[in-house]
């Protein structure tokens, strides 16, 4: 018989192992001793005790977490958001640009020959974003918020002397598509002037200019108090050319941050 501890083959009637000296139990049969040397087989678990559902659960949870993360990232980087950047317009000898940051709106008028510039800067009071457009509100812009250089400076001095107590407020509407460098949607500006002329006029007056741009059919409808012309639009990727009845009108550049 074989020793259950060291495996040495001993005579059937041996009391002690010749190899290691371990005592043999007289009640154990050779088969019982052999069974002691072989570890019991692991009993397979049934489906109910299987680890497969746990693995599937972990996989599903991981996929859910990834899906939530991708959704969050897409909302941050690809969803519509208020425009920040610069919109410029040029025609003939005139250049105009409007720059919007987190805090201010700045409008610059200048000439191509650099003979003079006119700049207005206003603090943004509120930003209201809708599904298609964002409205920026500013208030109480005075002459202290206006700067001029070159030939425009003389004209500014005349305006200040004629309307010393000027206060200007307004709203600028920008389509959310501008954040992608596009023009699609409604653009607009509404201005209210207080104390236009202390000598001949007291109170407020307002005016507004609106434009509806559809890049798909290449058209622009501009709404002003007296006329509503339709202008053709051509371009892409933030650079556009305007023409009215085939006559060149100017160029627009949309440069989001």
Weakly predicted, low-confidence segments: 36-44, 65-78
- How do the SSEs run, as a string of H and E? HHEEEEEEEHEEEEEEE
The main sheet orders its strands as 5-6-8-9-10-11-12-13-14-1-2-3-4-7
Number of strands: 14
Q: Which shape, going by the Cα principal axes?
A: elongated
**Rg, Cα atoms, Å:** 42 Å
Strand content: 35-45%
The helix content, as a percent range, equals: 10-25%
Note the total helix count: 3
The secondary structure category is alpha+beta
- Biggest beta sheet attributes: 14 strands, antiparallel
Straight-line distance between termini: 88 Å
Structure write-up:
The protein is of the alpha+beta class. It has a 14-stranded antiparallel sheet. The protein has 3 helices and 14 strands. The longest helix is centred in the N-terminal third of the chain and has 27 residues, at 52-78. Residues 36-44 and 65-78 have low confidence and may be disordered. The chain has helices spanning 30-37, 52-78, 152-162, and strands at 85-91, 94-100, 104-111, 116-123, 126-129, 133-141, 146-150, 167-175, 185-194, 204-214, 219-223, 230-236, 239-244, 247-256. A hairpin with a 2-residue loop joins strand 1 and strand 2.
């Amino acid at each position: 018989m074989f020793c259950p501890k060291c495996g040495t083959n001993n005579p059937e009637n041996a009391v002690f192992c010749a190899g290691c000296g371990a005592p043999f139990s007289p009640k154990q049969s050779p088969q019982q001793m052999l069974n002691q040397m072989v570890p019991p087989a692991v009993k397979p678990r049934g489906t109910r005790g299987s680890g497969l559902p746990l693995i599937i659960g972990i996989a599903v949870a991981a996929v859910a977490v990834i899906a939530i993360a991708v959704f969050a990232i897409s909302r941050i980087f690809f969803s519509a958001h208020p425009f920040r950047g610069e919109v410029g317009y040029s025609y003939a000898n005139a250049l105009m640009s409007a720059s919007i940051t987190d805090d201010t709106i700045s409008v610059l008028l200048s000439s191509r020959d650099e003979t003079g510039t006119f700049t207005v800067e206003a603090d943004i009071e509120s930003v209201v974003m809708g599904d298609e457009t964002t409205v920026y509100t500013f208030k109480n812009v005075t002459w202290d918020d206006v700067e001029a250089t070159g030939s425009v400076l003389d004209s500014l001095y005349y305006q200040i002397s004629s309307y010393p107590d000027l206060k200007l407020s307004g709203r600028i509407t920008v389509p959310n598509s501008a954040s992608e460098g596009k023009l699609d949607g409604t653009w607009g500006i509404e201005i209210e002037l207080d104390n236009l002329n202390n000598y001949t006029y007291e109170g407020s007056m307002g005016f507004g200019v609106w434009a509806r741009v559809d890049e798909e059919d290449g058209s622009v409808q501009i709404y002003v108090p007296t006329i509503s012309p339709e202008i053709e639009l051509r371009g892409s990727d933030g650079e556009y050319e305007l023409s009215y009845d085939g006559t060149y009108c100017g160029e627009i550049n949309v440069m989001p941050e």
